[in-house]
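Hi W., the pyridoxal-5'-phosphate complex you wanted:
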Amino acid sequence: MSAGRGSKPPRPVELAVPSDPAATVRGGRPWPAWPPLGPRTADSVAAAVEAQRWTLSWPGGDSLERRFAQHFADYNRVPYAVPVDHGSSALVVALEALDVGPGDEVIVPTMTWVATATAVLRVGALPVLVDSEPGSGCVSVDAVEAALSERTRAVIAVHLGSSVAGLGSLLRLTRRNRIALIEDSAQATGAIWRGRHVGTLGELGTFSFQAGKVLACGEGGAVVTSDPALYRRAQQLRADARCYADPHARHPDDMELVEVGEVTGSNHCMSELHAALLLDQLPRLDEQHAHRELRASELEDGLATLGDLSAVPNSADVDRRSIYTYGIRFEPGAFGDAAVEVVGQALSTELERPVYPPDVPLHRSLLFRPATKRRFAAAWTETGRKRAIGRAYPGAEHFRSTTLLLHHSALLGTSDDVADILEALTKVRARCRATRAR
Ligand SMILES: *Cc1c(COP(=O)(O)O)cnc(C)c1O
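Structure:
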């Protein structure tokens, strides 16, 4: 199956939408709110405002940014973390730390948020999009291997939804070929693979703290690494060629950042208000992971009784999932002829919250159109374009057309919420099948 841009969408099936909210499964009851306010969240931000130290680049003692960097590194059991303004910037900083640039290729899964690929273009290199595993949506390691060339400098693996990419084979492959592995862990803060936090296994790991993510501050991100030289470069790349001052050699009136100039940077610094939010949120993250896991296991018990529905599979090497989106897989025909979008709509109506298919894979996504930006033209030549997206993506297309997602906040409530999800699936499935039978 080759599904290029403009491939025909499946024929939608008409479904009666109940107009009376009392007739929906959810019946108007609220879902857990996200992002979450803890008992001290508002006070922490107010204290940061009142401290009148709103930025890292300012005199006046240790910043909250630096404190968060330490806490986040400790949380991930990795020596170094560099906070940044967005997960997208974290990817750019990671690529620049590796000195990836024009003429280089970086392998990226087609099944990801667009920022994974545009980060590569932003450093002047070519993103080479490869296929995904049909079950998990994570990058296919065989597809990565098939796409390697002399120009390949790095692979960006994305831990997608609730899954961890095939790190064992990816680490072997990248080491054997002497290329770097960047783990885009934007959706996976706190996932544990063979006893280690994801993001800490490749040369660099990147994270997003955008409001919807499992650790949220509105807009923010981080880069982690165990390599002191990459750490030193990453600091400068996010703060206009400056690094943290030695805390012991610094007078409180001195700036926290000192000019180093070993590599030209940009300003990707995280503000103090965002750092205050993250310092408030981080201590609750593991408890939230456990809460979601409890609800997920109830949901999985229920799905097992429904026959043709199942959870997105997880590798036995994963000791703890980070559930960002919870994926429900269905067998072809489980919902009659209804397209995944239509099923998602019907479930959203019943549950009064979004249930949706994965993002359209990048090789045919409206959001990924490098030709619309002149700065990307040097990489996006006719040859570049062919190299980037000129292959088949059957795994990604299968994943995309047979998976429904729920945002993780759906699993932060009670067992009754899980029962509603199962009831909505049963109801919509019966309705879709009846529609086909007519
Ligand atoms: C959210 C996300 C990003 C981008 O993070 P921002 O903080 O929104 O810039 C990158 N990659 C993946 C996989 C994401 O989910």
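The mean pLDDT is 94.

W.
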